[in-house]
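User: Hi! I have a protein structure encoded as tokens and I'd like to know what sequence might fold into it. I'm fairly new to this, so please keep things simple.
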């Protein structure tokens, strides 16, 4: 049975998204990616990570903005 994660640590979320830890933390600070706290741990819900990725600019939109 495949594993279905509902949340990730910051390191796991960065790996799952294919981005670096610095960029992930930047997205959290900019409030573009929702992070939650459980004690000292920072967690990223899988739904929030997917929503963040879905809201990234399309490549054709990014080229027009440049």
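Assistant: Happy to help. Inverse folding works backwards from shape to sequence: for each of the 66 positions I chose a residue that suits the local structure. Here it is:
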């Amino acid at each position: 049975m495949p594993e279905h994660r509902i949340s990730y640590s910051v390191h796991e979320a960065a790996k799952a998204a294919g981005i670096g830890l610095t960029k992930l933390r930047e997205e959290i600070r900019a409030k573009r990616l929702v992070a939650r706290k459980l004690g000292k741990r920072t967690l990223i819900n899988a739904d929030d990570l997917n929503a963040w990725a879905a809201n990234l600019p399309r490549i054709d939109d990014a080229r027009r903005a440049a």
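A useful reference point when you look it over: The chain has a mean pLDDT of 92. Feel free to ask if any position seems puzzling.
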